[in-house]
Structure formats: C-alpha cells, structure tokens
Amino acid sequence: MAELDTSSGGGKKGGKVRSKKQSTRVDLTAMVDLAFLLITFFMLTTTLAKPQAMDLAMPDKDKDKPESKLEIADNRTMTILLGQNNRIEWYMGLVDNPKTPTVDNYGRNGIRKAIIEKIKEVRGITGDPKKGLIVLIKPSKKSNYRNLVDILDEMKITGVPTYAIVDITNPEIELMKRDGIYE
Amino acid sequence: MPKVKVPRKSTAIDMTAMCDVAFLLLTFFILTATARQPEPLPVDTPASTVKIKLPETDIATLTVGQGKIFFGVKGQQIRINMLDRIAQKYNLQFTEDEKRRFSVIESFGVPVGNLKQLIALSGDERNQPGLQIGIPADSTDNQLNEWILAARYATKELNNADLRFSIKGDSREEYPEIKKVIDILQKQNINKFSLITSLRQAEQ
Questions:
Q1: CA-wise closest residue to A161 among A134, A126, A121
Q2: Is the pTM of this model over 0.80?
Q3: Is the ipTM above a cut-off of 0.95?
Q4: A95-109, B55-69, B149-163: least confident range
Q5: What residue numbers bound the domain in which B88 lies?
Q6: Min CA distance, A34 vs chain B (Å)?
Q7: Is residue A89 situated within a structural domain?
Q8: Chain A: residue nearest B46 by CA?
Q9: Does a structural domain hold residue A88?
C-alpha cells in the first residue's frame, strides 16, 4: 500500500510522550483521474493535429511531346464543370454535342449518384475493366477551392479509374451560362 | 451454531502503480507532442475523406488565402540555405544573426525587399493579421517561383531528396488563385503535389 512503515523500530519504552504518528497514506484517486484526463487530451491532440494530405497528380504540360496527348473515346468521358454557388454541371461526350447535360449538386445525393451510375454504364459498354470511365474536371473562375477538393474527394470515394483537372473552354462556359450556373 | 464471519475487506485499492503508469504515459505524450506554431495566415482548410498523413520532412507548404500566398519549408538548415540562394539572386546581404532568426520562421509572406524588416520583428509581431502582404507571384515579378526553386535546390543539396509540395488553400479561395500556384509549380515540372485538407467522415 501507499504507506511507509510507520511502526517504530524497537520496543523502546522511554517515558517520553510521543506525538501520535499519523498515517502517510494519501488518497491518489483524484491525482490518477487528473493524470488520465491529461493523457487523453495529449493523445487526441497529437494524432488529430496532423493535417491530411490529398495527393494530386496533374497532367504533364509539356507541349513538345505530342505523344503524351491521349486520344479519348467519347463514350467514356464525363466532363464535370464547376460553376458558381456550389453547383455542378456534367455531361458525357464532347462539348459540341453534349449528351445529357445535367445541373447537379455536390455530395451523396448529387454528383456521386451520377458518377457511380456512369462507372457501371461505361464498364458495360466497353466490356473491358481496364477501359473505365474518364472524368475531366473543369473548374471555372466562379468556383472556389472547396469545390475542387470536394470533387476530388468524390473521385476518391467513387473510385473513378482515371481523372484529370483540365482548363475550361469557352463553349463550356456558354453551356454553364445557358443553365444559369455561371454569370 | 456459530456463524463463520467473512472478514470485511477494505474497498480502498492501492493506486500507486496506476498513478505511476499514468504519469509515465503523460510525460511521454507531452514530450512527443509538437507545439503548434501560430500561423501568420490562418486558413480554413476544406474537409475530405482521405486519411493519408502529411510527411514531416522535405516538404514545402504553399498557403493560399485572402488572395495572398505564403511560403514555408520544413527544416532550419534548408531555410538558411534557401535564404542564401535568394540573397545571391537579389543581391542582398544577411548577417549570421538574421539567418538564424529566419531559420525559425515557419511560414512567411513578404516581398524580398521587406524580408529584413520581417526578420527584425518578434514572433508575435510577425503573426499580426494583415502585416504580411504575401509573396508576389505575378508574371512580371515572380518571386514565389524563385523561392520554390531555391528551396528545391537547398533540399537536394542538404538532404539529397526531392522536395515535396503541398498546397494549403482556404476553402473560400477562388479557383484562379489556386490555379496560379499550380501553374507556377507546373512550370517547374512539378506535376505531383498534395492538397492539405482536414478530416471528414465518409458518408457512404
């Protein structure tokens, strides 16, 4: 126990008046409580303070190497345009002849449904697991950084095999203006 | 018949060992915890579901918020080496004391001309909001490009490693600002970098 040996050494029988020895035992409960509280605090702060890193690889911008340019089949590409006020517009195929352009929201009930659906659809069309969906992300000037991170996060969640961030073009801005998510 | 009396035991437990362990762990966590540095440009990072932690060494952070760009690189020796290279480039002279003071600055955002004033300030004064105006990154005066280049050379020379880049952007920051930073990185053929985010649970 947390006490010292308080019994006196010998059996002296002096006539001295001894002061009564008090127990040295201390109640440690409160101290242990405090210690564990602090442990919990430090444990949580050390592991949570470290920021998360989302790795991003941009396509090579080398214009001298034309072989690095990839020809992409129309029926596999989905283009996602990031507009203003946290709105998205996506379409399949080329911008000259966009198939099913749809204005959508971020999150589980918005773009994610469409992406998952398209992944399945493309797999059915090509019949080759290596030739999956290709997503082109085109952030406009009206979108913000959170939109970009959100859409990249959706890519990670849905497991899109190939995706890239590409500059937006004028016909796409026109398309977004038409649907009222770019003014 | 006399009942057999069960002797009552004390409910007090010996807590000495428990207390010892608790304090041992506490000491461990306090010592391993790294104190969080105050940031001169506070940003609200967007949340994501990725769970990959940021590496501790050979990493540079580009903080983008309120239209300003701040730059910081890990490692005091690398910072000194980087400052030497910048001083050479812009024909500036820094004393040993100034270099030492610069090496403890986690992240900064001033034009090269104001660097001396920044180093002379104390840590608290430096982190006043609005004091540091950001590193110029225009096409006419692209100092950020020089800093990135200097940091990469310094890391290669001292650690023989490639410097990794991470972008810490404010979630309200408009895309063109982020694009500007990405373009500067890509101009130096850095096509892989990390975006710093905070944690969010996946809503599957």
A1: A134
A2: no
A3: no
A4: A95-109
A5: 47-199
A6: 9
A7: yes
A8: A146
A9: yes
